[in-house]
Prior knowledge:
- The protein is an alpha/beta fold.
- Helices cover about 35% and strands about 15% of the residues.
- It has helices at about 15-30, 50-55, 70-75, 110-130, and strands at about 5-10, 35-40, 80, 95-100.
- The chain has a 4-stranded parallel β-sheet with strand order 2-1-3-4, covered by helices on one side.
Amino acid sequence: MSDKPSVLFVCVHNAGRSQMAAAWLTHLAGDRVEVRSAGSDPGAALNPAAVQAMAEVGIDISAEAPKILTVDAVRESDVCVTMGCGDTCPVFPGKRYLDWKLDDPAGQGVEAVRPIRDEIKSLVETLLREIAPPPAP
């Protein structure tokens, strides 16, 4: 176990919202936070509109793949964030659980995914300030 905080983002297919959230946190936090994402019923591939929307802001998630949610992933995370998709995580004492109510990008074009991407960024920025504030100058 590391001494840096760890976050697990969960949505059913792990193909859109949770992947965008993980990419934002990785991008914004650098090595200050361990980041994971997973889903209870992973899709076959990432949502192409989510990949395109993230590429528009300079973040390449095209090499990522949906991953299955495991009990170990939850156990090893300090914060578990579900994406408002009805997915649930195993509950362990001492973990922080959040549910972000986000529109589902599945089947949507990039125009519809951009506002979801931007809302996720805002939520991730708030979470990052709470769990791993930047070092003092």
